Amino acid sequence: MAGFDTHVHSTASDGVLHPAELVKRAQQCGLLGMALTDHDTVDGLAEAMAAGQELGFPVITGIEFSSEIYERDVHILGYWIDAAKLRADGRLAALQQSRIRRIYEMVRRLRILGMELDAEAILAAAGGSPGRPHVALAMVNAGYAVSVRDAFQKWLGRGLPAYVERKKLSPFEAVEIIRAAGGAPVLAHPGCGVPDALLQPLINAGIYGIEAYHPEHSPQMEKKYARIALHHRLAALGGSDFHTPGIRELGCRVTTVGQLGKLAALKNDETAARRIY
Asked: N or C: which end of the chain has fewer CB within 10 A?
């Protein structure tokens, strides 16, 4: 089914393709458009939007906030955000600084364990939103781990020797920030550990949609979250959560034109709706 892939990551966070490469690849896949939703950063949006304009391919400005509550990761996607307003919000800058400090501390702990890594090199390779995947890749390249998964399972996962907490927003703060930046907040992949008891509070907080269709959702989960979205008159979105070719390929899950139009209508954004149709 043709549609928009509304969950895509680039080298601006933890993806492996540059924003312009992603836009070109999305068009070649036969998608109708895409949203760039890098983790806690808008650094890739200008490049993606320029590429989309050049190719005549719709690109939606987006972000994915890696929020947390009750020691559970709860990610909130934002669409049609004003990047300038978001950059002006000091909370985004604080998240970025926390990510940088975390890299230094993880490298320090790994050195104690006998693994010599260069924090500056990791940060340079990571771009605007460094995280554990960048450290894991450096470990693989240095021969300290056989794969990124291996690095997470032995050293970087929660509770393991090199795991370091970082500053995270609550999902309610993420919704507030997205709406303040003119965006439409959407709950990402709720089937990946989001307690059902949290759905109603997030709906009350002002999310406009739920990512019902995701590669890690079972068919039963997809039906469940699509029903919840319909019941609460929210948009039911779908995205690949693309990071790396060969895993979760672009367009393996999509948002239909109708559901994206519904999201734009909930946001009361006539300009966004015209760009969809």
From this structure: N
Q: Same domain for 81 and 102?
A: no
pLDDT in tens, 39-58: 999 999 999 999 999 999 99
Closest CA to 74 of 244, 183, 210, 181: 210
**Full residue range of the structural domain in which residue 152 is found:** 92-156
CA dist 37 and 184 (Å) reads 12
Closest CA to 51 of 10, 1, 96, 6: 10
Same domain as 250, residue 216: yes
CB 61 within 8 A of CB 45: yes
Q: What is the 8-class DSSP label of residue 194? A: -
The beta-strand segments (E) located in the chain are 4-8, 33-36, 59-69, 72-79, 184-187, 209-213, 235-238
**What value does the mean pLDDT of the chain take?**
93
Domain closes at, from 130, 156, 182: 156
Q: Give the pLDDT mean for 175-182.
A: 95
Cα 245 to Cα 9, 124, 215, distances in angstroms: 11, 22, 14
